[in-house]
Amino acid sequence: MRQSTAKYCQALLCGSLICFFSTGLCFAKGPTRDKVSLQLRWMPQFQFAGFYMAEAKGFYRDEGIDIQIIPGNGNRTQIIEEVLSGRADFGIGNSGLALISMQMKPVTVVADIFQRSAAVMLVKPGYENSIRNLSKRNLALRALQDNPEIYAIFNSLGIKPSDLPVMSTSSNGLEEYINGKADAINAYLSNEPFFLKKRNVPYKIIDPANFGIDFYGDALFARSVYVKNNGDIVKRFVRASIKGWVYALDHTEETVDYLHQGPASYKSKDHLLFEAQIIKELILPDYIPIGQISEVRWEKIATIFKKLGLAPEQSEIQPEFFLSYWENKNAKLTLWSYLGGIIFFVSIVLGIGIWYSKVNMQLSKLLVEKNSLLSSVEELANHDFLTKLPSRRLIYDRIEKGIKTASRNNSKLAVCLLDLNGFKKINDEHGHLVGDQVLIEVAKKLSYWVRESDSIGRIGGDEFLIAIENIQTRENIDAPIARLKEEFELPFLVGQQAFKISFSIGAALFPEDGSTPDELIQVADQNMYQDKRKASHKA
């Protein structure tokens, strides 16, 4: 008996120790994260930079997400199938998602990343002004379903897609254009023009947007049941992805370096930089919060699909196509059913009171979540992620307001453009993390320098834009700038390292140098480069 008791105690002790160490290992590993997969349309390139930077900078990790980014091959049907089958949680689609929904397939758009489509038509010079003549020439266009916005150009002029002399639907349109076999090809603004410029081949661009065909570009989507069952994961994933895009667009060179040295190493750095410039014009972050969804615009796209004969006239985009953070129709239905079941056992007043209370609490909670997400997106759109200074969008808005104030008060407004000298060397020698810390310190020093009535923003890289109000003469700017240059004589401390940084600055005065933000910034830019040239001569 004693022996069995002793053995039991030993077993209990061993079991306790195993549990203790197992628990310790679990804590050591940290909290588990939700695994999420994202299916891309193409191979890695700047088109997907926001997602790669969200992974590289830990934005997904901060939201409790482990991300798997899966490269694609351009097969639209395959991408839809990967998501609908559950092999991928999210996918990158385009305006064709509206057609998928009209075909009764359960897809939900969770964020519109590209506000404009990159799809255009490249034509030989001379044909850009005569679409009707072009419709009789040799066209190398992809199939109607793959490039509907191009066919919609002709359709808007009464030329049916079936009447077009499409000589080829292959992916070799670029070579056919260069070899003179095709007079027009479908293309993407971020791709084919780059190669034609390198080979000095002349071309003209026909943009569907100029014909009222305003399609979306890249859009994040998921299968509807996944969105319904994983609402919190979806919100966290979208939030991290938007942060990644804000960072990528504000740190273009760093992002290009990361892609070129890693996932997109097959592409030249020049091509990635070209892509970055074009894609910013497609995302329009200075005008529209990244991710914003317009139901009205999607409905207009659906109408174009009907006109092209791609969808029956009576077909519609399904309600679950649009992501809603504040509606929960299933919860409402459940509560109504519950009310119907107990209506014979409790009074009507009490039943309605219970139902109203529960639904009201639920809607209030979801509305708070929705407002929180929108506030987060608005904050990202209006402020630089790294320095917390106003973004290009917000500083432009403040300059416009400053111009109006100066006009009313008969005063002047100074707009200064400041660019750091030799900052690239810091990034190259010490890495982007150190470079980011230097930018943060520079932003702090500039913030201390300006008055409360003035505005300062970071407009990208190592460039800062400053608006100074209530200026009487140009000399009123020179003295503060001289003091700021003296401040920059002191080294910047980052950790244990000291960095000596100088800057070049140019100023423009309203109304003498211009009457709009763009005119003032252009003059300030010219004066900044004169200052930079003077500094280089002194060196």
Please tell me about this protein's structure.
Residues 1-29 and 325-339 have low confidence and may be disordered. With 539 residues, the chain is of the alpha/beta class. It has helices at residues 2-29, 49-56, 59-62, 76-84, 96-102, 131-134, 148-155, 173-178, 192-198, 224-229, 231-250, 252-261, 269-283, 295-307, 329-342, 348-382, 392-409, 423-430, 432-449, 475-487, 517-538, and strands at residues 34-39, 65-70, 90-93, 107-112, 119-123, 139-140, 166-168, 184-188, 204-206, 219-223, 412-421, 455-460, 463-471, 492-494, 497-499, 502-510. Helix 7 (148-155) links the parallel strand 6 (139-140) and strand 7 (166-168). The chain is built from 21 helices and 16 strands. The N and C termini lie far apart (93 Å). Strands 2-1-3-10-4 form a 5-stranded mixed sheet, with helices on both faces. Strands 7-6-8-5-9 form a 5-stranded mixed sheet. A 4-stranded antiparallel sheet has the order 12-13-11-16, with helices on both faces.
